[in-house]
Amino acid sequence: MSQSAKLELISFKVCPFVQRSVIALNAKRVTYTLTHINPHEPPDWFKAISPLGKVPVLLVDGTPLFESAVILEYLDEVYPPALHPATPLERAQHRAWIEFCSELLGRQFRMLTAKDETGFNEARDALQQGLQRLDTMLSPELPYFAGQAFHLVDCVYAPLFMRLILLKQEYGLELPLSKRMQAWSDALLALDAVKTSVVDDFSTVFANFLAANDGYIIKR
Predict the structure, then answer these.
(1) Active-site position among 7, 9, 10, 15
(2) What is the pLDDT of residues 174-190, one digit of tens each?
(3) The pTM is what?
(4) Of 60, 81, 80, 61, the residue nearest 71 (C-alpha)
């Protein structure tokens, strides 16, 4: 495949794993199309190309790639500038913290969909603990995960922070962040690549997602 390949990203509007792929595409200024589907009624053609029934799926000249981490690796191999660190050890470390972000997104999802106070508190505390652990790995140099340079690992944490901001603004839910982590969050959310990684009415879409799940968070 070449840099002239036709790229189509299949998405749910609220999915953070799709959003990380969009951020990488935007940061690299790659031309692509974005197709949103209904997660509750996925079309037959989507079922045929997504072995796990999940998004994102990236069609590269019609060939499907699934799993967001795999898609990110493909994009970084094919489309400059490279967003992974240059050294093998640092690349491996970043890949590990990308995987850790997937765990944190899972904790955030469980918090958002918890049906009772106990489940909500357990998921919130687990997410807070994870953020505190992540904080110990941030470079002392601002503003990004590893300092001044923006990397793939930054792409994957931006969706987490965007949702934390919405939860604070709309639902009064605040998970305290250190000054260093807050600076990282602010820097990521100020990027055009991140601002344009969601639909224009994302706050409404996110609110509708929470309402549809009827979780404890909207009843607090």
Answers:
(1) 15
(2) 899 999 999 999 999 99
(3) 0.96
(4) 60
